[in-house]
Specification:
It is built from six helices and eleven strands. The protein is α/β, with parallel strands linked by helices. A six-stranded mixed β-sheet has the order 1-2-3-4-5-6. It has a five-stranded mixed β-sheet with strand order 7-8-9-10-11.
Length: 195
């Protein structure tokens, strides 16, 4: 089961497994009250969220991660994301309206690429986390075995022809399409049904 949680500029998604759940992305720091309202609107409790995965560490995708960690949600950190965890710290530090605590990455659950399927299986979600670095080096996508795919800020597939020279983007979409997705969920666009 997937809940779309929209409480700012970024689509976030709660994927429920049989023995845990995974929140894909958060919005900006300072949006926790709006997040709580969105949870209530969708009949979701904070205790329903086991893990959080940021598709990448830009401010509009990971802003609530440290606050959620303080509240008991565990951060899933892929090995290629580790060096980017603090990418947005300075951006938040300059914003006087926002109180932000940097992520304590040592408290995260570290997952290697080759272990992503078994990690997801451990919480009753069948799928895989893929490295899709065309947007940023730390960008990841999640594709479930039922064909549902979450790609964060990856440029939409229908724009692919406009990026003739972007080999990384084409490679990312070739990888995703090799899993035969039937619906793509984007962080800042409407979903695209492929079948």
């Amino acid at each position: 089961m997937v809940n779309r949680l929209k409480y700012g500029n970024t689509n976030t998604f709660l994927i429920r497994g049989t023995s845990g759940s995974l929140l894909v992305d958060t919005d900006y720091a300072g949006t926790l009250p709006l997040f709580y309202k969105e949870l209530k609107k969708n009949a979701v409790k904070l205790s329903d969220i086991t893990y959080v995965l940021a598709t990448h560490y830009h401010p509009d995708h990971m802003g609530l991660v440290s606050e959620l960690m303080q509240l008991g949600v565990k951060l899933v950190l892929l090995d290629t994301q580790v060096e980017y965890v603090h990418f947005s710290d300075e951006i938040f530090r300059r914003d006087e309206r926002t109180e932000y605590m940097p992520i304590k990455e040592k408290e995260a659950v570290f997952v290697k690429w080759e272990e992503s399927r078994s990690f997801l299986h451990s919480i009753g979600i069948e799928g895989e986390i893929l490295s899709t670095p065309s947007h940023s080096n730390d960008s990841v996508s999640l594709i479930l075995d039922n064909g549902t795919c979450f790609v964060g800020d990856l440029e939409p597939i229908n724009y692919l022809d406009a990026y003739e020279e972007n080999i990384k983007l084409k490679e990312d979409w070739e990888l995703i399409m090799s899993y035969n997705p039937n619906i793509i969920f984007y962080a800042h666009a409407n979903e695209k049904t492929l079948i």
